[in-house]
Give the backbone structure.
Amino acid sequence: MTPEDRLPAMFRFFNEVGIIAQLSRAAFEARLSEGVTAPHFSVLNHLIRVADGRTPLELARAFQVPKTTMTHTLAGLEARGLVETRPNPEDGRSKRVWLTARGRAFRDEAIGLLAPDVAALAAHVNPAEIEAALPLLEKVRKALDAARG
Amino acid sequence: MTPEDRLPAMFRFFNEVGIIAQLSRAAFEARLSEGVTAPHFSVLNHLIRVADGRTPLELARAFQVPKTTMTHTLAGLEARGLVETRPNPEDGRSKRVWLTARGRAFRDEAIGLLAPDVAALAAHVNPAEIEAALPLLEKVRKALDAARG
DNA sequence: ACCAGATAGTGCGATATCGGACCACATGCA
DNA sequence: TGCATGTGGTCCGATATCGCACTATCTGGT
């Protein structure tokens, strides 16, 4: 039994989660072209999965990041021509974010580039176990979110 | 069902892990005093749990971060008087990192400040489930680490 | 003993995160 | 209508992450 094994399970849990987030993010970004980060991809993916035309604040809430962070992420996406923003006709303070054709294509290519890595991982870790762990992760995430105030 | 069909579950898994890492880190840092980050705390904790007198490179490997990041983290800890470094008598290129009395005290206080949050979380999520998820997380972490090259 | 290659650590530059301050517009209430 | 308050978004500054390049030192083979 190593010293780590004696730590309370909660600490080890968050420790493992932190390291996995860090490693997966690094592996992820290594597959994306120059300067495109995991948050960039996540936003593109969200706009496709949910629907584009979201406002920056909606996106910030969806990803649980401060709005200043989302401003910055969107600026990066816009500078790369992957999204465009237009004024929100229903609210003069606000914008809406739209995917460009390049943005959609980029996301699809990225999925293709990522697939082999996911498959390689599936060779080491049973995907059914991954899926079985999802409800717990969601529960933890919601509990943390609720605790934020 | 082939592993490829499980692909969306993998994506959701890493997505949840990323958000949990982000929220837990933010909650964590909100409890620590001015400017002390989760990595700072993690390093202090590691030095107490394992043993101090580690080299910066050993620490970087333990936390799976680039050595430049560890240099920066250690500089922050040293500036706050929580650790001190001395030359490694066995290797002139290297240093060893030692805890100060303040560093030990700081860590113990932080554990005390964190305990209520952990307890509050335990009220929403069964700690036994958390513990049951640890082997999977370790497996994923090790697979990612092995894939780094 | 020498030298080539490996290894420990740092400096620097690019970029990300995020809190606080700020502006513009919206909303509610008198 | 007019103003106090609230909300969407950005700018700025402090700090974190991390790749690249560099120095100092160590190690192994000759």
